[in-house]
Design brief:
Low-confidence stretches: none
Distance between the termini: 39 Å
Number of strands: 2
Oligomer: single chain
Order of helices and strands: HEEHHH
Length: 81
């Protein structure tokens, strides 16, 4: 389970000239797999806690995303047009 989800998450990480993107996506894929395992094992309380922590972490960390990174992303997207 861990290896399969890790492999899928690894495919979500993109490395380019401007840096690495997709690490949060890869982490959330792995967390979703962990939540699924918890539900499958009947540990609903653990699944609920993991869901809340994952959601909160992704929401809070969005505020720390650098605006410089977002500017590079929009510039590279404009170059592709």
């Amino acid at each position: 389970m861990i290896n399969g989800v890790g492999f899928i998450g690894g495919g979500a990480i993109l490395v380019g000239k401007l840096g690495t993107r997709g690490t949060a996506t890869a982490a959330s894929i792995w967390a979703t797999g962990a939540i699924g395992v918890a539900v499958g094992l009947g540990a609903y309380d653990t699944a609920i806690v993991l869901s809340i922590v994952t959601f909160a972490t992704l929401r809070i960390m969005t505020n720390f995303k650098s605006s410089k990174n977002e500017q590079h992303t929009s510039q590279s997207d404009n170059k592709n047009d």
